[in-house]
């Protein structure tokens, strides 16, 4: 009996070591980038060099920040992601409220119109959207970058699903108390559904923060670039672009990493409720 | 009474107004306008000049790099989507049972999810670099992976597989953990046939989740452009990494040729929707529901 238990423990320990090794393999590109970002140029270029820096240096980080306005890129990305996610929650929860609690002609048709947007991949409308934004003279403007992120059909759907589970008794009671629709929505419904709102905000923030093609299309001034676009355009004159580019990459992923680590639960909940979409 | 009802209706529409104004301007209008204008000759501001029927489509399909881009997109999708889901499935099987170290490797497994395509592209660009990249160093090769007709697309496929591991894994893991304990025990990973058992017993049970992932990934893989634009701005060696959407981007924002951009958008849409519908059709036959 005892030997069986120890054998089982031994197996479990080995199994877990194996699981961690697999995890390290999956993380390898990141670990590699991390080491390169602290590696001296001489080692990066040497054919026989090992993986781990022989001389730890921050010169790549210094070079990265000297070459491009990185803090500006970060600010642009942060501003655009934050504001558009905030507006997106608002537009989505207002619409979700109408779909979940109010009665009006055409409700079904309008709801199907929301669902139908799931079928139109965002990328196929970019050429036409680009014309709209250019026509409105919003190229190189924050509002131009944010425009297409202010509404999302999937988010309307997710929030509506959450509202639907709200107790009708509390709703009826609040109406009896003379609560208007808007007060019910703002003071009771939104606070008690904060979890889905956080989920939508976080997934939306990550989606906008990580997006590439649209910010690339509607900006052409360096000062208006987002991090994701900026990082692909780094030019280093002195022949060692690799270290600084990896240093820049490390800096760029810090915000999404922190958000991911802290809000993993909400993100996973959001995925299960409808998938992370940009 | 009637008046009050009308007021209620108006109030409801007011709540819908902001969302629908934006949906119309940035989803429905651009979609319909792309379809409509694809039948017209347009100037560099995408203004209509003359009705030409299907001429733009003829030109589009006569365009060598667009024809290639369709095949490239299919190749990319065909390999990146299933392989990523399959690897994620085995990751989920490894992590299925919570053990003492679980919190650690569960984070490791899901971390690619936090990566953006730009950063992933920049990292893999160095991994596959001809002179300093670790792939050439370890294999003792001197291949210029991103500039070689036979390898460039494979680099993009590998990056995409890696980027989607975290997302797919988390989905499958939660499906696997939702299965009854007895099923999990019968497929416990401790024997020589562990992988075949996982494949035969667990995979059919989580097939609804796998199907959902397939649908999701198909649409995004068929409209992939980022990796191609970042790593191979010119469409790669012999246009082997041009995709439908990277082609559309170059025709629109770069060269203002909307006679090609709009039909390209429409074709990409049709292909993406057909793939999704085809997956739905397959669902009836292949997916096991309890």
Question: How would you describe the overall organization of this protein?
Answer:
The complex is a heterodimer of chains A (278) and B (290). With 278 residues, chain A is an all-alpha fold. Chain A folds into two domains: 2-61, no CATH class; 68-274, MetI-like fold (Orthogonal Bundle), CATH 1.10.3720. Helices cover 72% and strands 0% of the residues of chain A. In chain A, helix 1 crosses helix 14 (242-262), helix 4 packs across helix 8 (153-164) and helix 4 (70-101) runs antiparallel to helix 11. Chain A is flat. Chain B is mostly helical and 290 residues long. Chain B has a domain at 58-115 and 146-286: MetI-like fold (Orthogonal Bundle), CATH 1.10.3720. Chain B contains 13 helices and two strands. Chain B has helices spanning 2-37, 55-62, 64-95, 102-110, 117-127, 134-139, 152-177, 181-186, 194-205, 207-222, 226-231, 244-254, 258-286, and strands at residues 40-42, 48-51. The N and C termini of chain B lie far apart (50 Å). In chain B, 47% of the residues are buried. At the A-B interface, helix 1, helix 4, helix 5, helix 6 and helix 12 of A face helix 1, helix 3, helix 4, helix 5 and helix 7 of B.
Question: Which helices and strands appear, and what pairs or packs with what?
Answer:
The complex is a heterodimer of chains A (278) and B (290).
Chain A: H1 2-37, H2 41-45, H3 59-67, H4 70-101, H5 107-116, H6 126-135, H7 142-146, H8 153-164, H9 168-176, H10 181-192, H11 194-209, H12 213-218, H13 227-231, H14 242-262, H15 264-274
Helix pairs in contact in A: 1-14, 3-14, 4-8, 4-11, 11-15
Chain B: H1 2-37, E1 40-42, E2 48-51, H2 55-62, H3 64-95, H4 102-110, H5 117-127, H6 134-139, H7 152-177, H8 181-186, H9 194-205, H10 207-222, H11 226-231, H12 244-254, H13 258-286
Antiparallel strand pairs in B: 1-2
